[in-house]
Amino acid sequence: MPVLGRVNGLWRRLLQPLNRSVRTRFVTLALLPLVVGFPVLLLLLAGWGGAAFEELLVFKVRSDLAVAATYFERVQSDVGRSIEALASSEALADTRRQPRTSSPDALLRERARSLGLDYLLLLDARQRVVAASLPASLGLRYPQPAVVLAASGGTQRATLDVFTPAQLAALSPLLQARSHIELLATPGARPSRRNVSDNGLLLHAAARVPGQPLVLVGGVLLNRNIEFIDRIRHLVYPQGSLPIRSRGSATLFLDDTRIATTVTYPRGGRAIGSRVSQEVSEQVLGRGQAWLNRARVIGDWYVSGYQPLLDSRGQRIGMLYVGFLEQPFVLAKWMALAVLFVLFAITMAAATWVSWRFARSVIAPVERLRQTMSEVAAGRLDARVGALPQQDELALLAAHFDALLARLESQNQAMLRWAGELDDKVAERTRELAAANHTLLSAQQQLFKSEKLAAIGQLAAGTAHEINNPVAVIQGNLELMQELLGEAAAPVLPEIRLMREQVQRIRLIVAKLLQYARPSEYAGDLQQVQPQEVFQDSLLLVGYQMNRGNIAVVKQWHSSATLLANRFELQQILINLILNAIQAMPQGGVLTLSAHDAPGSDGRPGLRLSVADNGDGIAEADMARLFDPFFTSKHDGTGLGLWVCQGLAERGGGVIEAANQPQGGAVFSVWLPCEPALAAVGLAVL
């Protein structure tokens, strides 16, 4: 039951989009067999056909490999029978009976050439060469005795064996030279440190000479045996057996190295010395299993068949390979699928057109109803469905719907009139509430500032009383100590000077506290001030710091307005901001001073003075605390400079702000009114 419930819920979720639109249901009903049935059939056909196609290719390469293996075994048998026939022939017997008139060496050379063998050797009971097609091998002991021993026991045998370079050189230096193959770098091959393959893969057979303790042995070297591998290729893949763009290939491997192959490189030349992939090598040579699958052969994908080659002891020593290029078959498969797809598309298009023609008579009226509802929802209350061409239930529904829309339009107009009157009353009450809120907020801010000033005033008074007295004692004793010591104080004069500076610093901190807490005691007279002149005077006072800090100054005067302010307090603000900017550029930089007209937030005319640097800027975490008392990011700062500047600016009716510039660095701006409300702070005007 729970499973059925989940299936039912899934089915409902799948049908949910269809339940939202009649048009969608009609279109789905008309096209579902076409849109779903045909693609499913095509996918099933493509999947089944692809699998059957791959099985067909594997079956073909299996049969090709069987043909090649059969031919290879037949060649082995033919070599064995040929040597057995020669061992039993009267011609060989005559050369043994009449050595003066008929040379066995000449007979062996002639028969080796006619049989396509690289050598024919006649061995005695000790396996020594007594006659040979290769004169250099006379007296040699045959290096692979297993075949010879089997023939001595009366069993004719033809098999494969691996000969070392020394064994090949003893038979013939030419055979050794043919077996020397330089290994080529092959992507995907098993890792190996070898650079050369010197061993030889020989197909050899032996037969006993009747009535004599002699054995005839002959063999053919398969390394670089192009004629032999080409015969296998032509036998397995004759002309016309493959598609036009495909090609078949055959290869003999010694271990995992191609020693005879029809595979060529794209630039030309046979791929002798290249190696098989590690995956194929592990399956065929490692596990002794045939490989019947696609495999990469010198950069191209081939449908490949590999089977192991065994030596006289049953050891896996190499592989026989046949295969054909996969791409033309894959193209043919996709071409067939493309034809099926085109036929499906044509059939689907025709069926879709017919189904749509029948469904449109129902969909069109429903679509007009839906479009009318959308227009009404968008605010067009005058939208109507209108008369429909048919006289059915949908036409009656459209007429009834138009009547409802007409009634809705008249009611909506009445509601709009009532809503307008209500909006006017709400707007009036909102303005009154906003004015009351603004008054309350201003009162709260003024109360907060007054409480803050009162608290800091108490702190400043206590600080001044508790600090100034001991500071005065320290300063007096320093002067007395220097006076009493006289010249004896010379060694510690730097320390005495440092102590005086620190005492003066303490006095300055206390003075700044009192200056903010009791502004009326520190307020100066107001006068007409040119901001450019105050900037110039401030630059003169900080000239030493600017020269030492390698600071360039850019001046941007975009206003000629005059401020009514305390010149010294304004100068104190600007000097503090300029020194902060210099300290923010320890490696030097550009100091930008600017002045331009800027109305205040309440619309009053004013002037904005800015000090900008191109240093590292202000950390986001420090931005909210810049103007808090005793907050500083400098190791030797007091945290009172910006705090005092803010108090001086606000006392003049202005605002000081800080921000980071998009191009880097920070900018501090002081906005001051051109006509400040002086009566509010009780300042005298000269």
UniProtKB/TrEMBL annotation:
InterPro entries for this protein: HAMP_dom (IPR003660), HATPase_C_sf (IPR036890), HATPase_dom (IPR003594), His_kinase_dom (IPR005467), HisK_dim/P_dom (IPR003661), HisK_dim/P_sf (IPR036097), sCache_3 (IPR033463), Sensor-like_sf (IPR029151)
Transmembrane segments: 26-53, 334-356
Higher taxonomy: Bacteria, Pseudomonadati, Pseudomonadota, Betaproteobacteria, Neisseriales
PROSITE patterns xrefs: HAMP, HIS_KIN
Domain Histidine kinase span(s) in chain numbering: 462-676
Entry coiled-coil feature ranges: none
Pfam families: HAMP (PF00672), HATPase_c (PF02518), HisKA (PF00512), sCache_3_3 (PF17202)
GO molecular function: kinase activity
Domain HAMP residue range list: 360-413
E.C. number: 2.7.13.3
Localization terms from the record: Cell membrane
Keywords for this protein: Cell membrane, Kinase, Membrane, Phosphoprotein, Transferase, Transmembrane, Transmembrane helix
UniProt membrane topology term: Multi-pass membrane protein
Catalytic activity: ATP + protein L-histidine = ADP + protein N-phospho-L-histidine
Domain of life, source organism: Bacteria
Keyword Acyltransferase among record annotations: no
Name of the protein this chain belongs to: histidine kinase
Organism name: Vogesella alkaliphila
